[in-house]
From TrEMBL:
Domain GP-PDE: 1-240
Recorded GO MF terms: phosphoric diester hydrolase activity
Pfam family, one: GDPD
Protein name: GP-PDE domain-containing protein
Annotated PROSITE patterns: GP_PDE
GO biological process, one term: lipid metabolic process
Domain of life of the source: Bacteria
């Protein structure tokens, strides 16, 4: 079972920061994951929420402020917003990085690809995983032909459409990852990843205190997105 660090080692460190990514890799993560948005002046930043309320107690949208303003923000833990270029440096160092694309307009996709092209050598781009929420984004990255593609499918019913569009890996929520669905996707040739917790589990996305990792692995799931990388890694290693 591959362990993917959901917003980094976010159970113990500020999410989407270099500290959380470093800790995740030190704990044995297969890949680090982060969320990508753009400032009002087109700078790529690592931010899960559309607004700044939860982390910075500010009402504005991330997309409403220029990067110079975003860069001044500091949360209660002293964490600041990281740049897209910060996380791409991990790819240059030979690490796998999953980008959860929170903005998938044509303009956002073009900006993202321009940054990737400028900062990641072509030989290392297969280490980069484009996490796409729309078929349009899947097709965009298929056309580039240089990165891996994960389908963050909006609903289980759309899984096969994402596969046929070019997403060779499919992400399911834990509550949606029935053995029957996993088997069907595996029969197509898809790799299946699961985000632990989330709707129907009583846990926040990425939490996995009740996740049956052994059962997921037995059903054919090969990747698990989690917040506590160290705990998940220990549990996954116990399966070997």
């Amino acid at each position: 079972m591959r362990i993917i660090a959901h917003r980094g080692f976010s159970a113990g460190f500020a999410e989407n920061t270099t500290q959380s990514w470093d800790a995740a890799l030190a704990a044995g993560a297969f890949a680090i994951e982060t969320d990508i948005r753009f400032s009002s002046d087109g700078v790529g930043v690592c931010a899960h929420d559309a607004d700044l309320a939860r982390l910075f107690q500010r009402p504005e949208q991330v997309s409403a402020l220029p990067y110079a303003e975003l860069a001044k923000l500091e949360n209660a833990d002293g964490a600041r917003i990281a740049l897209l270029s910060d996380v791409l440096s991990y790819v240059r160092d030979g690490n796998r990085v999953l980008l959860d694309l929170k903005e998938e307009t044509p303009q956002a996709l073009d900006r993202l690809w321009q940054t990737i092209s400028a900062e990641v050598p072509a030989t290392l781009r297969p280490l980069l995983i484009a996490g796409c929420h729309s078929l349009e984004a899947v097709r965009f990255f298929c056309a580039q032909g240089e990165t891996s593609i994960l389908g963050f499918i909006p609903s289980p019913e759309q899984a096969e459409a994402f596969w046929h569009a070019g997403a060779r890996s499919i992400r399911l929520w834990e509550n949606d990852a029935s053995p029957a669905l996993v088997k069907r996707l595996r029969s197509l040739g898809a790799e299946v990843w699961v985000t632990s917790g989330g709707h129907g589990t009583g846990l926040a996305g990425g939490d996995h205190t009740g996740t049956d990792i052994a059962q997921l692995a037995q059903s054919g799931v090969s990747g698990l997105l989690v917040n506590d990388v160290a705990m998940a890694t220990r549990r996954a290693e116990a399966l070997a």
